[in-house]
Design a protein that fits this description.
9 helices; alpha+beta; binds fe (ii) ion; four-stranded antiparallel β-sheet; binds FE2/S2 (inorganic) cluster
Length: 409
């Protein structure tokens, strides 16, 4: 459990909050790159960390990400005209370039463009996502070296969903290896083939950029081998799902929109080969790792409003949940853990929650340290983000260090 005060501290990420400040020290995915169309498509709303922003693409391809409030009298720049070389506020016509410079004030008899700026944030387009750094310019870190941002376009598939709960509920679900063989039992797909194995042993180790959450099971195949699942947690809100060597890997990110809504980013990539037609079909259609969403709202098609498609007959017949699709099963439990912000002071944690406890401690310590003036080191370890998960059978005597090292790019 957490105290009610610590639960407030860890879940709230709006402007000026300690956790919000910590998030603002990292490069975060904020939208799909495909949401930001050509100039004539107009700007795109980007709502993250309690801030309202707009993204727009100039005719030269540059993307601007500005505070939605026009610096004049705060009209919303979402209504703005993208004129190809800048975004014009429709109220009194002030115009801003992608870097926030004001270039026109048509209604002013004596323009003072040089004394006004729109707040503009640095952006990067990588792996089909738009990334931004929303913190102070003087602490901007290098762009993290995620492996999926360095592979060819055909090797990677990215998606975004709107999830109706606080970001931490999703992150904790991603780190929670113990739920896999319970919640997802008899699920569609093949991720739970180890379901029959004995309960795992859990271990957590620190890394440069977060933690490794490890679950070790005795292998049903042989008493001389152990089955390792290692989920890297990368600060502040990212994980990589355990995956066997040689095939695709999947990244997850839980980026707060506000305290009760988050963007779930999922990226599947294959370092070795382009994603096959079948792998892409699973990403687009199967609600296993990615999920089908309404293209306008990004709400999952199967959602709380239709009880996540629960089929009580299927549940009675052997599916744990009766809910089709692993990702949908996760949404069903994460979106309401006694509300959109789970009251963690009421929990009773067990030994399976070790990685969750360690993650909370890391986040709370870093947020408190930053509030006291100590900058986090993790955002500056760009190479630490170049990291893979592990799902592998190994001889029982092997140490985790070698097993993890062998899996890395
Ligand atoms: S509010 Fe934007 S130009 Fe006046
Ligand atoms: Fe899950």
């Amino acid at each position: 459990m957490l105290s009610a005060a610590d639960n407030e501290l860890i879940t709230r990420t709006g402007p000026g909050t300690p956790m919000g400040e910590l998030f603002r020290r990292f490069w975060l995915p904020v939208a799909l790159a495909s949401e930001v169309g050509p100039a004539e498509a107009g700007p795109t709303r980007v709502n993250v960390l309690g801030d309202q922003l707009v993204a727009f693409r100039s005719t030269d391809g540059t993307i601007g990400l500005l505070d939605a409030a026009c610096p004049h009298r705060l009209a919303n720049l979402f209504w703005g005209r993208n004129e190809g070389d800048g975004l014009r506020c429709v109220y009194h016509g002030w115009k801003f370039t992608a870097d926030g410079a004001c270039t026109d004030q048509p209604a002013e008899p004596r323009p003072f463009c040089d004394r006004v700026r729109a707040r503009a944030y640095p952006v990067r387009e990588a792996a089909g996502l738009l990334w931004s750094y929303l913190g102070p310019p003087e602490t901007e870190p290098p762009f993290p070296r995620w492996e999926f941002t360095e592979v060819a376009a055909g090797h990677v598939y990215a998606s975004k969903r709107l999830q109706l709960c606080n970001w931490l509920q999703n992150l904790e679900g991603e780190l929670d290896s113990a739920h896999v063989q319970i919640l997802h039992a008899h699920a569609v797909g093949t991720l739970v083939s180890q379901a029959a194995a004995a309960p795992p042993r859990y271990q957590v180790e620190r890394t440069d950029v977060g933690l490794l959450a490890m679950a070790v099971r005795s292998s049903p195949a042989s008493e001389n081998t152990a089955y390792w699942r290692v989920t890297p947690y990368l600060m502040p809100c990212f994980t990589i799902i355990p995956a066997p060597p040689g095939g695709p890997l999947t990244f997850t990110g839980a980026v707060p929109v506000d305290d009760v809504t988050m963007l779930g980013f999922t990226v599947t990539w294959n370092p070795h080969a382009p994603l096959s037609e079948e792998q892409l079909r699973v990403c687009r259609e199967d609600d296993v790792l990615h999920v089908r969403v309404d293209p306008a709202t990004f709400l999952p098609v199967v959602n709380r409003g239709n009880d996540y498609g629960i089929d009580r007959a299927a549940q009675a017949a052997g599916s744990m949940t009766g809910i089709p699709g692993l990702r949908t099963q996760d949404l069903a439990v994460q979106e309401d853990q006694c509300g959109p912000i789970s009251p963690r002071e009421r929990e009773h944690l067990g030994s399976t929650d070790r990685a969750i406890v360690a993650t909370r401690r890391l986040l709370l310590d870093a947020a408190r340290a930053l509030a006291a003036g100590t900058e986090p080191t993790q955002p500056h370890r760009a190479d630490g983000y170049r990291c893979r998960s592990v799902a592998v059978e190994e001889p029982v005597e092997r140490e985790w260090t070698g097993i993890v090292a062998d899996a890395q790019p």
